[in-house]
Amino acid sequence: MIRHPQLIVRPLATKLRHVPVRRRQIALLAVIAVGAASSAVASSVSTAERRTANAIRGSLLVASDHGIYRRYANGTLKQLTTTPEDYFPSWSGDGTQIAFVRYPTDLRERSCRLFAMNSDGSALHQVGDVKTDCSGAGWGPGARQLVFGGAPPGGNNATLWIVNVDGTGLRLLLRGRGANPEGAHPSWSPDGRTIAFGWTAGRLNGLLAIPPDGSGLHALVKPRPKHFDMFAQPTWSHDGKRLVFVHVDFEANGPARKIVTASASGAHRHTPARLPHNPGQTGVPSWSPNGSLVAFSGVCARQGCVWTIPSRGGRRQVLMRGLFAQGTWGPAGT
């Protein structure tokens, strides 16, 4: 393991020239500090920030322009992958496995591949030959299955699939007609009964939920009448009692993104943080192991940051700054 690794930073224009539009948005967030920062230090962690991390006793996965890192509770960093195209890391419920999507290097590709590995970075493998919509995947109970948004096969269709972690047993869960611009970002509840996801590709849109057998599709949060609302990036709390997600509001004095918490049924909604609409893919919220904090990706000054904020609202705090985004907390003890 290494502490505060020195990363080599390429010019922003060079970094973004050969990547798809959606990845450009993510990369822009991750490297927005390059033009102004005089140092390529990946993370700046204060004593207070270390105390916060230790208090919640869980590791944080972060995506960077140099792969995926694991940040332990004491602030130590370990690089798990070395491919710049790796994004949206996701913990299994027991903290033993990690899934992520790998963006294509070919601009003609419209899909991302799905990968899984042990939580220490070993046993890295591609999950079959599935093609995802480049949003995150969610782990089922026992770290045996993954749910993911499928890539359109050439038409304007969105899909939701379940697959075994070894790539077998691919099963279609839902299909819709229309675009799903933020991606499904499905999240499987800890009890295994419900999959929450964002959806804009059917008669029923919003933050939706569906059992893993495909029955009982229903809306947790619907768009408001005469408003253009999108809901994305849902994540269950580790006890399964609450959700956190991103609400993209196109009607609020110009587009805006909000971090919203809610009960498991989508009720009792609260907005602890508001973000600029751009750069795209800001947000990516996740719960601390004890549910007291929410981590999310944003911008502080002219740097990309991983922030934390009390889940009930309060003062936000920078946990990591520089080249990191998409902080995802593992369960207690990781």
Explain what this protein looks like in three dimensions.
It is a single chain. The protein contains 3 helices and 24 strands. The protein has 334 residues and is mainly beta. It has one domain: Neuraminidase. It has a 4-stranded antiparallel sheet. The two termini are 15 Å apart.
Helical content band: under 10%
**What's the tally of helices?**
3
CATH architecture: 6 Propeller
- What pattern of helices and strands is seen along the backbone? HHHEEEEEEEEEEEEEEEEEEEEEEEE
Compute the average pLDDT.
83
Q: Number of DSSP strands?
A: 24
Distance between the termini: 15 Å
What is the highest CATH level, the class? Mainly Beta
Poorly predicted regions: 1-45
* Mass-distribution shape: globular
Our estimate of the beta-strand percent is: 35-45%
CATH homologous superfamily caption: TolB, C-terminal domain
- Structural class of the secondary elements? mainly beta
At CATH level 3, the topology is Neuraminidase
Instruction: Kindly report the spatial arrangement of strands forming the biggest sheet.
Output: 3-2-1-24
The largest β sheet comes out as: 4 strands, antiparallel
Rg on CA atoms, Å: 18 Å
Number of domains: 1
What topology emerges from the helices and strands here?
Blueprint: H1 12-17, H2 21-31, H3 47-56, E1 60-64, E2 67-71, E3 77-79, E4 86-91, E5 97-102, E6 112-118, E7 125-132, E8 138-139, E9 145-150, E10 157-164, E11 171-177, E12 187-188, E13 195-199, E14 206-210, E15 218-221, E16 229-236, E17 242-249, E18 256-263, E19 270-276, E20 283-287, E21 293-300, E22 303-310, E23 317-322, E24 324-329
Antiparallel strand pairs: 1-2, 1-24, 2-3, 4-5, 5-6, 6-7, 8-9, 9-10, 10-11, 12-13, 13-14, 14-15, 16-17, 17-18, 18-19, 20-21, 21-22, 22-23
